[in-house]
């Protein structure tokens, strides 16, 4: 059954239960919360049907009526929607302490993943340990610097593949190619190996990661009506359990192989993330094999779709805006040299490219509501109460298009960031595509390096043209809502040798 059918069936069968509960609610008085304003919910399903196909847009519209701090009822779940930079600051900074737990969807709780997952644990000693290790070891500048050569090598392979396509005038699906490359960037950073061979034979890993993200982003009736969790009406839990089992098994094999190598007299150079984690496990007992598998799962799932979708949008915007493409090319030519691949040590010298990535993340924030947060206890914001256990969605998509913050908000213009202090590191609340506060994306620095490396190299090494004489005005700019906001129609472009 699809989501809407499920919801409607549910509506009918529950109508009678509702009559009963109304009766009961008159007898048992509820606490009198002063919830933020919002649309009135209909019985049982609340405001669920108002979400539509594109919740980021529907909720943006509702916020125009009800304000930047809005409350809704999504099924049984009280949901607070944040739609301005000021309110985002209230959630991500001022009241961060009590608003930083996660709402856990059923697709995440399979195999108890939420008990081990960096991304979905509540604030807890284990979560703090994992964050500390990310910040001080896995994603520190020092370790990212020491793994940059493997990413550079992968980038070179990617460029070779494109070069082959350019020789036969073949179009490439930029999303698919970047997806593969991103997985290999991550798998080489973590495990020093490719998880996808460039001829595409090892498609299983890619399909796993794709399916896990897809299921995590599929609206699930059971998330809105916790009573239905047992029934798994859309089969999401069943499918996700299989996927997660498989991916954890793949990681387990890799860990076992590495342990064998480390036991022997290793010629091994001991410098990837897996080695860092195994080193930690010798001193710190919480870092066991299970946690390493779980953390690897989270890094791949959180890092792949987000990075890929950003790059696909960036290329789309550059192709649609030839003047901007020209400027980006010119900067690269002057600073790096025409056709020379970009390296990570170069990225601080490319302000226009950096601005292009910021502008892409502004117009197409890959995680439009951040990861759903949950209130640990009652919190008061601007005189309204956010009740304990309410889900909190920060609508980054609408904040990034707020006309009171951004001039000409729907215009793609990297220039707006030149000479501006605005960054996406969680301190400027008008631009928080990576979130903020203590839950801010720990992969931010790696993401930025991968994006600069790929975009810079793609732009500097080739000219690009659309397929079949298509004009750039005709590019379909529609987006598709999921846990990440992707391009609805894949961008297909033809690489040309630089003239
Ligand atoms: C363009 C790329 C990326 C974007 C836009 C992005 C965005 C986000 C966002 C919005 C959150 C939630 C923040 C919040 O709740 O305030 C998040 C969390 C997270 N991200 Fe990223 N991310 C990206 C790339 C990556 C990469 C490359 C990795 C790692 C390899 C990664 C790992 C994580 C993890 C583990 C979390 C959960 C952190 C926690 O809950 O404590 N992300 N990311
Ligand atoms: C792991 O420990 C070994 C031996 O102490 C050390 O040489 C290596 O650099 C460490 N690796 C990482 C990634 O920290
Ligand atoms: C780019 O990085 C490479 C490798 O580190 C270096 O040789 C080159 O000089 C850098 N170019 C610029 C302009 O920084």
From TrEMBL:
Heme binds at residue 441. Its cofactor is heme. Keywords: Heme, Iron, Metal-binding, Monooxygenase, Oxidoreductase, Signal. Residues 1-19 form the signal peptide. GO terms for molecular function: heme binding; iron ion binding; monooxygenase activity; oxidoreductase activity, acting on paired donors, with incorporation or reduction of molecular oxygen. PROSITE patterns: CYTOCHROME_P450. CDD domains: CYP76-like (cd11073). InterPro entries: Cyt_P450, Cyt_P450_CS, Cyt_P450_E_grp-I, Cyt_P450_sf. Pfam families: p450. Coiled coil: none annotated. It comes from the Eukaryota. Belongs to the cytochrome P450 family. This is Geraniol 8-hydroxylase-like.
């Amino acid at each position: 059954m699809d989501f809407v059918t499920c919801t409607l069936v549910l509506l009918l069968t529950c109508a009678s239960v509702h009559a009963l509960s109304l009766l009961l609610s008159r007898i048992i008085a509820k606490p009198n919360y002063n919830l933020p304003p919002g649309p009135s919910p209909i019985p049982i399903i609340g405001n669920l049907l108002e979400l539509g196909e594109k919740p980021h847009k529907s909720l943006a519209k509702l916020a125009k009526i009800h304000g930047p701090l809005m409350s809704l009822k999504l099924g049984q779940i009280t949901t607070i929607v944040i739609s301005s930079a000021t309110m985002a600051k209230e959630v991500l900074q001022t009241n961060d302490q009590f608003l930083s737990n996660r709402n856990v969807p059923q697709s995440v709780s399979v195999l108890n993943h939420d008990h081990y997952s960096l991304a979905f644990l509540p604030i807890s000693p284990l979560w703090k340990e994992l964050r500390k290790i990310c910040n001080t070891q896995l994603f520190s500048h020092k370790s990212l610097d020491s793994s940059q050569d493997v990413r550079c090598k992968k980038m070179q392979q990617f460029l070779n593949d494109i070069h082959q396509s350019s020789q036969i005038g073949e179009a490439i699906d930029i999303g698919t190619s970047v997806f593969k490359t991103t997985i290999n960037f991550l798998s080489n950073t973590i495990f020093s190996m490719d998880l996808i061979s460039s001829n595409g034979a090892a498609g299983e890993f890619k399909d796993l990661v794709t399916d896990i993200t897809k299921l995590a982003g599929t609206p699930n009736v059971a998330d809105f009506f916790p009573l239905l969790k047992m029934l798994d009406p859309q089969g999401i839990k069943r499918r996700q359990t299989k996927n997660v089992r498989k991916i954890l098994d793949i990681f387990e094999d890799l860990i076992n192989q590495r342990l064998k190598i480390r036991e022997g007299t290793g010629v091994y150079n001991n410098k990837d993330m897996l080695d860092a984690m195994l080193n930690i496990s010798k001193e710190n007992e919480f870092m066991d094999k299970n946690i390493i598998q779980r953390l690897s799962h989270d890094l791949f799932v959180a890092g792949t779709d987000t990075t890929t979708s950003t790059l696909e949008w960036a290329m789309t915007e550059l192709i649609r805006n030839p003047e901007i493409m020209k400027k980006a090319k010119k900067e690269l030519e002057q600073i790096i040299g025409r056709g020379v691949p970009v390296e990570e040590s170069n990225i601080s010298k490319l302000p226009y490219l950096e601005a292009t990535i910021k502008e892409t993340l502004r117009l197409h924030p890959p995680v439009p509501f951040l990861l759903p947060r949950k209130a640990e206890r009652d919190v008061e914001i601007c005189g309204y109460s956010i009740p304990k256990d309410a889900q909190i969605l920060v609508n980054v998509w609408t904040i990034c298009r707020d006309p009171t913050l951004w001039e000409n908000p729907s215009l793609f213009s990297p220039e707006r960031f030149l000479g501006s202090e605005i960054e996406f590191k969680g301190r400027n609340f008008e631009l928080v595509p990576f979130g903020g506060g203590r839950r801010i994306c720990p992969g931010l620095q790696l993401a930025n390096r991968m994006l600069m490396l790929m975009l810079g190299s793609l732009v500097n090494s080739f000219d690009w043209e659309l397929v079949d004489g298509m004009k750039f005005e005709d590019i379909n700019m529609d987006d598709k809502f999921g846990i990440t906001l992707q391009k609805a129609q894949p961008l297909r472009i033809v690489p040309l040798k630089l003239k």
